[in-house]
Structures are given as structure tokens and as C-alpha cells.
Amino acid sequence: MARTSEKRIKNKFELLVQTNKISQEQLSHFLHRGVQVISPKHDLGLDYLDSVLPEIVIGASKNYINEMKVPYQATSFIAANTRSDRNGAYVFKIPNQPSGGIKLLTGGKRKKGDNLFASIHRMMLGREAIMVSALNLMTNKDKIWNWKFFGDHLKNEDDKLYEDLVKLNSKVSGSNKTKYYIVVCRSDATFRRLNILQEFKNKKIAVLDPKNDIKVVFLTNLAGYEYGSKTIPESDRVDYLVTGSELDIYQAMLVLRKKYNIQMILNDGGRQMSNGVRDAGLLGEERVTLEPYPGDGIIPDQLDPTSILGQDGTGLDGKEIEKSILLSSIKINGDDNAGNAELANVYVYCLDEKKVL
Fold first, then answer.
1. CATH class of the domain defined by 2-179+262-356
2. Which pTM does this prediction carry?
């Protein structure tokens, strides 16, 4: 099955060259890069998970990831269609709502498909490191974003699926703990603006609470280190990665790979941060649960442009996400013909091989 899926994906890239959507050089990049297609049933012995999500797709082969001198990065988003006829833009947040209105995107209740897909993201791509912006850290300061943050919602809803997630996690990592939480805190001004040091003193930041025994790496500049380390000192749980008077994200990635031996990062920093990493040629893929229209009266009539994740026709292949190619789309909940399905989508971006290899 994996070989059939890999061949299908290869044919997709070759068709994009024939229709002048991507260049021959981009084709060579994607063919060299390869893909991983994992069957929960045949590769992992997880029959029930296979019945819900028959493929787990990662947009680079193990060999390619091993060759890289920076970590392979993937994002994780949920986005909902803004129109009942499914012809609207997809939004990933609703302004002026708690936590960006994430629950509202699924009609007010977390859905099975997103909880499943997001859990698997964290196991497969975030088991070594999850990277967040300082803003996202403080927005969710009381939470720890491991797979159970999403997976525990399935405990009562589908106990067989939850059992298979526990088994999957033990097979891929053997632990519930992500090895590193990486926080992008660009300068001392960021520490000040978000009141990080005071909240740390008050033990309000879960990943920095000693009892949770989590390793945190701050990516910051020299001024950020000098300011932050006075209150949050370096220790066996806290480290600072400093690239000079300005934070250089590429140099930071080189150090994360070489010093910390991090091969993969789940980039959970939000749209602005992930777009910056993408534009630097360092973002491998986007993993998105696409939700159907959540119902009337939820999404504002006037869309905030900063809340739009994508729209049909904007990708290199004419799909939803700008500068990307839709690699895989799997219906994981509901009936797509009825317009109520959740889609587990994986999109890939071109990497800058001069930087990453």
C-alpha cells in the first residue's frame, strides 16, 4: 500500500510539471526529498486506527531528514470553511474570541477528526521538539501541548481509538513527553511585553514549572538572554540559544540540529511565525484539519484578512494553501458528499536545499 501511495504522489508531482505549475527543478527537489507513507494496520499493527485514518503521510523520507543540517519542520493548524456551499475561504481563528475561537471553528465542540489528527502530529512530528512563539506560549501558558492535550478528548468518545493512540505513542516514542519545548522570544522587549518573567515567578507557565520536568530552549538575542536569564536562569531544564544582537532563525536551526540533535520540529508558533520560516525556505509541510462550515452566526460576515489560512486556487497546485502542494487528503470524520467531513490534509513546501542540506 505504501508503495502504491508513494507512486500516486510521484505522479502528482510529474503532472504539475507537465501543466507548468511547478518547475523541473522543483520536481527534482520533491523526488529527491521523497515521502513517508505509514499504514497503521500493516506497519504498526493498529487495525482500529487504520479504519479511521488509513495513512499517515510525512512529506520527506527518513533518508532525506537524516541528510538535513537543520530540523525538518511541520506546522499544525485547524481551519474551517466560511461558507455552507464550501466555496469560501478557510479561517484558522475568529478574532475577539477566547483562544482564537478554535472550538467555534468546529461548531462549539472539539471534533473527533481534529483531536485524532492533532494527536498524531505531536507523536510523529513533535516527539522531539515543539516550537512556539512567545505569544502562543503566554496565550496557552497553563497548558502542555503533548498529544494527550488533544487525545484525552477521545477517551470517552471512542475508547478503541484512544487505546490505539496510546499504542502508537509507545511505538514511536515510548514516552508521553516531548523532549524539548522551543520558545521563540526574539528580544528583551518580547520578554517585557508579554510579562513572561512575572508570570514565571508566579508559577503560571506550565512548561516552566519545575514539577513538570520539561526542557525549554529559548531562541533569543543577546539582550533577551541578558534580561531573561536573570529571572529564569539556565539549568538542566532551561537553556538559551543566542545568535547575536539579532535572532537569526536559520543559525538557530543549525544549532538545534547540531547541538541538541533535533531531527524534527512541530512548529506550533502560529501563522506569522510559520510564514516567516516558510519564506526562509525552512518549513517542510503544513498539516491541517479542514473543517466544514461550522454553522450560521459563528464566523463574521467581514473576514479579518489575518485570520484566513487559505482559499481554493491559491496553492501551486490550485488547492487551498499559498506556495504549497496538497500531498495527501483523507476524510477522517463525517460524509464528504454531505459536506460535513473533516479532512486530514498534508501540504508540502519547497525547501531551500542550499540551506537545509
1. alpha beta
2. 0.95
